[in-house]
Amino acid sequence: MKTTEVTAAVIVDGSLVLLARRSPGKQEAGKWEFPGGKREPNETLKECLVRELREEMGVDACIHQELIRCEYEYSHGRINLVAFNTQLQGAPLVSKDHDQIMWIPIDSLLTYELAPADVPIAEFLQGKSGSGIMECES
Questions:
Q1: Alpha carbons within 13 A on the beta-carbon side of 85
Q2: Assuming Cys at both sites, which of 127, 129, 131, 136 could form a disulfide with 106, CB separation 3.0 to 4.6 Å?
Q3: Residue 109 located in a structural domain
């Protein structure tokens, strides 16, 4: 089975992190995830994440260091999810793939119904919050 590379933006503001909920009709509809998307051919992972945030949320971003990689096998295919510390340059808009965007307290991340591949990112953040994660400027 082919593995698809997917990026995720970890956008932290103080004790909050940005999550997006998958729209009805999409795979994993109703589940929360870190925004991002699939890497296109001839695109770096950071370029992918910049493009996805611009396309889906109408916002530019600065992509910092890689935080964690998670591999997950869904019924529709295997993904390698790569999460990056990300800083937005503007306020996000509701995206085409999500019906809701919310700032969630990091310590309550695991109380949300996350997409399975995103759970390790939430666990990482709960263990690492406040150490080495760039915060968005207000």
A1: 16
A2: 129
A3: yes
pLDDT digits (tens, 9 = 90+) for 77-98: 898 999 999 998 887 665 677 8
80 lies in some domain: yes
In the chain, the number of structural domains is 1
DSSP-based three-state secondary structure for 31: coil
Q: Cα–Cα distance between 124 and 121 in angstroms, integer?
A: 5
Instruction: For residue 111, give the CATH number of its domain.
Output: 3.90.79.10
> What domain range includes position 121?
3-128
CA 65, distance to chain mean position in Å, is: 14
Residue 131 has pLDDT above 50, yes or no: no
Whose tokens are 């996350």? That residue is: 114
CA distance 100 to 92: 11
Q: Name the average pLDDT for the chain.
A: 86
pLDDT of amino acid 110: 94
Q: What DSSP assignment string belongs to 70-132?
A: EEEEETTEEEEEEEEEEEEES-----TTEEEEEEEEGGGGGGS-B-GGGHHHHHHHHHHTTSS
Sorting pLDDT into bands at 50, 70 and 90, what band is 42?
very high
